[in-house]
Design brief:
Layout lengths: L5 E4 L5 E4 L2 E2 L5 H12 L7 H8 L8 H16 L5 E4 L2 E4 L7 H17 L3 H13 L13 H27 L3 H14 L4 H13 L3 H19 L5 H11 L43 H8 L14 E6 L6 H12 L7 E5 L12 H11 L11 H12 L5 E7 L2 H4 L10 E6 L4 H7 L2 E4 L5 H12 L1 H6 L1 H11 L3 H13 L5 H11 L15 H10 L3 H10 L7 E2 H8 L3 H13 L4 E4 L2 E3 L2 H14 L2 H26 L23 H24 L3 H17 L3 H18 L2 H17 L3 H18 L2 H17 L3 H18 L2 H17 L3 H18 L2 H17 L3 H18 L2 H17 L3 H18 L3 H10 L9
Parallel strand pairs: 6-9, 6-10, 7-8, 8-9
Antiparallel strand pairs: 1-2, 2-3, 4-5, 11-13, 12-13
Length: about 950
């Protein structure tokens, strides 16, 4: 039996059908949830956005959990759990044009317009009729018009009106004047200011032989526009009127799309100035191909077709990323599409003086652009804004509103005409403008290497760039893809044309500890000054967080780390981060983690050292390090529950401490924080906080070892050794020497490892630590086995067992018993090996040490394999693999896959053997481990390759 066919209808009341039968969604919240998802079909919507929609902007504290319940109920009601999915961007409903009528409508319109461009007007007319027949009523007619739906309803309604207009125009082209005229008259009456409809109605009357009625349409329209709006008719309407007056024979043969070729006449009204206010385009613009393509997509393909709505492209990005440059460049490229004028206004949202342009000053500037006499400008702000919108009604005008602070700053200046296009630039993301005005957001990122190199080439010459590729690479790295920084570096190179780029790069490097390397010649070309404009617009809490981010040593940070920096609750830190993200001073590059550009980080560090008192800086850094130390301690205990926890001081007040909850969550936390934790150890050591430095490194050993990050482990252990030496802490030095030795073994540095083991033993003996000596002898056994000396390996492991018994340390006794069993089986005494390993397994199970269980089951698997009992071996190895997968031991996972391959090969299951060996090889290669060669030999079928372990 085939899968059910489900369809959704939103062009009218919300409707759902499965196999032709209605699907009831009685709960109002389920209907609202489905409608919200369908309004953005095939696009993710964040949980926060959905919660705001469902609860009208006031979601309860339990909103996320309740939303999950609603999603589950919706999936159940639809009978298709995969229909609504969840990913990094949020919730997403999948639908095709065959399943969702709004998509079918868009698809049919696309086909109709394609047919029309190809000259097949009859096919286009049928496709328009099919598209319009899908409409039952206003979209989502039975649902409240929340912000999310209001945007989509407005978009669909405007597209419907445009489709009706195009369809009627096509009927005129096909000779249906009388029928089209009646419908046009009704439509024009409903939309009396839509001049494109009025022009079509005039044409219909004229072609039907009713010239007087055509002229009356124009007379009535002009009077209405003058009386109610104080403006004259637009150019398109005037062109048709002039042609009717002179009985232009072309009116009978031109297609609707060719009407703009008719001769225009000057407007008779008092306002006739066509503004052309765009600033000069940059002659060396480069890159941004993808962004220009997206902007181009805002315009209809047919040059004569009106825009579907007021399209607002909210170009946002960090300071110096080139928002204005892109907006002005693209505006020049499309200026001819807007014959009624191009407006430009800098709203000064982030100016150095902190005084943004208010709406009264802004609208006066815009009215001045149209040469409106002062006596005609209303005294009230609302009146002036109304006149401004009236001037733009029916006109094709491009409006560039630059340097906008927030949505409220720009909202009053948005025209109401469907023929205008607005470009908005801001350092804020303007989410309110996107939600309520249908703005199309376009966030500018940094230039990639190719684009940055092209920008440099255009400014200083391709030959000079090609001549010094290494120096150019250094310059690009210092600028970090920020166009303003690149422009400043290029200007320095152009001014000093005789100086080699290598020398210039060295000068910039010498200046570049701060931002002095990117100091320009005025405020607009000084990176520090430009950054300051965004910084000064922040609230006090967000500004403080930004400053303190300069103290953070890692490449990014999570919300708890940010909260610890400022000593505030999570919610306050999240709000501050959200504000910084809107201002593009940080970016949420993965969910829940934030980073900022290197130059912004330098600027933050300057602010921290200049504006934060030293005690406050030290307290903030202390809270951050305590967050990492204490959370890492909790996470490490989840990975190694039987490990004796290291005593640490209480965390500083204001430092947030998380408990991951289980081993899998601990691995996820360590993985996300990996680079930050390594950097934190080094920062603590450099700041003289030696106790924090070595204790934090100790908490990282289990994770870094299991995940195969041995180079990083050596780095943090070396820093910690320096710290403990300064502290004179011999027990800590003993622990660290032993872990350094174990890591050196992993890296194949066996001679170095032996020296480190002996240094550990010396320190442990000096402080009388029997368990520590046992650990060291046990680890020495492993190192000696890897060098092929199983006799000495067994000897050291037996010493370890004796020391563990003296110390009364049961976890160590279990490990030593497993080690003795392992070396016994390597010597061929498999029965003795099984006895020791079973004792070890029982002890590990009693202790709840799952890592020890995994190692012992591996030893048992090998012993059974050597005895020819391959079924028992496979069973042991499968248990081992499950445990390693559970707590994320990548090296153990690789080894066990290799062993499973050996056992399956022994029973003749070549396919299974190949699969396990292949997986083992992938992980060993990922870890850069020497075992990869042996597994590769097995896969190649080399003789004897499967005999060795």
């Amino acid at each position: 039996m085939g899968a059910s066919v489900i369809t959704f209808g939103v062009l009218g009341p919300l409707a759902v059908h499965r196999d032709g039968q209605p699907v009831e969604l009685p709960a109002a919240m389920l209907r609202r949830l489905l409608a919200a998802l369908l309004s953005r079909a095939n696009q993710p919507i964040s949980a926060d956005r959905l919660a705001d929609t469902l609860w009208d902007g006031n979601p309860p504290a339990t909103a996320r959990k309740t939303l999950q319940v609603y999603v589950h109920r919706l999936r159940t009601a639809l009978g298709d759990p995969a229909r609504v999915s969840h990913g990094p961007g949020g919730y997403r409903i999948a639908a095709t044009a065959a399943e969702l009528d709004s998509l079918a409508f868009a698809d049919l319109l696309g086909q109709a317009r394609t047919s029309r461009r190809a000259g097949d007007d009859h096919a286009a007319a049928k496709l328009f009729e099919q598209a319009l027949a899908l409409w039952r009523a206003e979209p989502y007619a039975d649902l409240p018009a929340d912000a999310l739906l209001a945007d989509e309803v407005g978009r669909l309604s405007e597209e419907h009106l445009r489709a009706r207009e195009e369809s009627l125009g096509l009927r005129l082209d096909l000779g249906g004047h009388a029928e089209a005229g009646a419908e046009l008259a009704a439509l024009a009456a409903a939309h009396p200011y839509r001049e494109s409809l009025l022009a079509l109605l005039m044409l219909a009357h004229y072609r039907a032989g009713r010239r007087a009625e055509a002229l009356e349409v124009f007379r009535a329209a002009r009077a209405r526009l003058a009386d109610e709006l104080g403006i004259d008719a637009g150019a398109a309407l005037r062109r048709v009127h002039a042609a009717v007056l002179r009985d232009d024979p072309r009116l009978d043969r031109l297609t609707v799309s060719e009407l703009d070729t008719l001769t225009d006449v000057a407007p008779a009204g008092p306002v006739g100035t066509v503004p052309a206010q765009l600033p000069a385009d940059t002659p060396v613009f480069s890159g941004r191909a993808a962004e220009l393509a997206r902007l181009a997509g805002l315009l209809p393909a047919d040059r004569a077709t009106g825009l579907t709505t007021v399209v607002i492209s909210a170009i946002s990005g960090t300071a110096g990323v080139g928002k204005t440059t892109l907006a002005v460049h693209w505006a020049h490229r499309v200026a001819e599409r807007f014959p009624d004028g191009q407006l430009y206004l800098n709203l000064r949202g982030y100016d150095p003086d902190g005084i943004a342009m208010g709406p009264a000053e802004a609208v006066r500037s815009l009215l001045d652009a149209f040469a409106v006499p002062p006596e005609r400008i209303p005294a009230t702000l609302d009146g002036s804004l109304g006149l401004y919108r009236s001037l733009l009604a029916g006109k094709r005008v491009l409006v560039v509103l630059d340097n906008v602070r927030d949505a409220e700053h720009v909202r009053p200046l948005l025209p109401g005409s469907p023929t205008c296009l607005v470009l908005v630039t801001s350092r804020d993301q303007l989410p309110a403008l996107v939600a309520t005005e249908g703005a199309r957001p376009l966030t500018l990122g940094l230039l990639d290497d190719t684009e940055a190199r092209e920008l440099l080439s255009r400014r200083i010459g391709a030959d000079r760039v090609a001549a010094e590729p290494e120096a150019v690479g250094r310059l690009l790295r210092m600028c970090g893809g920020l166009p303003l920084a690149l422009a400043i570096a290029a200007a320095r190179a152009a001014i000093s044309a005789e100086v080699p780029l290598a020398e210039l790069a060295e000068r910039l490097r010498a200046e570049g500890a701060g931002l002095d390397a990117f100091t320009g010649w005025d405020a607009a070309t000084d990176v520090r000054a430009v950054f300051s404009w965004s910084y000064r617009a922040l609230s006090a809490r967000a500004a403080r967080l930004f400053r303190l981010l300069g103290l953070h040593p890692g490449p990014d940070l999570a919300v708890p780390a940010a909260a610890s920096l400022i000593g505030a609750p999570l919610a306050a830190a999240q709000a501050a981060l959200d504000e910084l993200e809107r201002a593009h001073l940080v970016a949420e590059h993965v969910p829940g983690r934030y980073q900022c550009h290197d130059l912004l980080h330098r600027y933050a560090a300057e602010l921290a050292h200049g504006d934060e008192p030293e005690p406050e800086r030290l307290a903030a850094l202390g809270r951050l390090l305590d967050h990492y130390l204490h959370t890492a301690r909790q996470a490490d205990l989840r990975l190694e529950a039987v490990r004796q926890p290291l005593p640490v001081d209480d965390p500083a007040e204001g430092a947030l401490v998380d408990d991951p909850g289980d081993a899998a969550a601990a691995v996820r936390w360590f993985t996300a924080e990996h680079a930050c934790l390594v950097a934190a150890v080094n920062r603590a050591a450099a700041a003289g906080w030696d106790r924090r430095a070595w204790q934090l490194s100790w908490q990282l050993t289990t994770y870094l070892d299991r995940r195969g990050h041995w180079s990083d482990l050596i780095t943090v252990l070396t820093a910690a050794l320096g710290a403990t030496a300064r502290l004179g802490d011999r027990p800590a030095q003993a622990h660290l020497h032993r872990h350094v030795a174990r890591t050196q073994v992993r890296l194949g540095r066996h001679s170095d490892a032996l020296a480190s083991f002996h240094a550990a033993l010396e320190q442990y003996r000096a402080v009388g630590d029997h368990a520590g000596q046992g650990h060291t002898h046990h680890n020495l056994g492993v190192a000696l086995e890897m060098q092929g000396d199983t006799v000495q390996a067994l000897h050291h492991t037996e010493q370890a067992l004796a020391l563990y018994i003296t110390a009364g340390y049961l976890p160590g006794q279990a490990r030593a018993l497993n080690g003795i069993g392992w070396y016994r089986t390597l010597a061929g005494d498999h029965r003795a090996a099984l006895e020791h390993c079973h004792r070890a397994l029982a002890l590990f199970t009693e202790l709840g040490d799952r890592n020890g269980q995994a190692h012992t089951l591996d030893s048992l698997g090998y012993a059974h394999h050597q005895l020819g009992d391959h079924a028992q071996a496979i069973g042991c190895y499968e248990q081992t693999l499950a445990l390693y997968l559970d707590f994320g031991d990548r090296f153990g996972e690789a080894e066990t896959n290799a062993h499973l391959g050996d056992s399956h090969h022994a029973v003749g299951d070549a396919a299974a053997a190949t699969a396990y060996w292949t997986r083992a090889l992938e992980i060993f290669e990922e870890l850069g481990h020497a075992e990869a060669a042996a597994v590769r030999d097995k896969l190649r079928g080399r003789p004897g390759a499967t005999a060795a372990r």
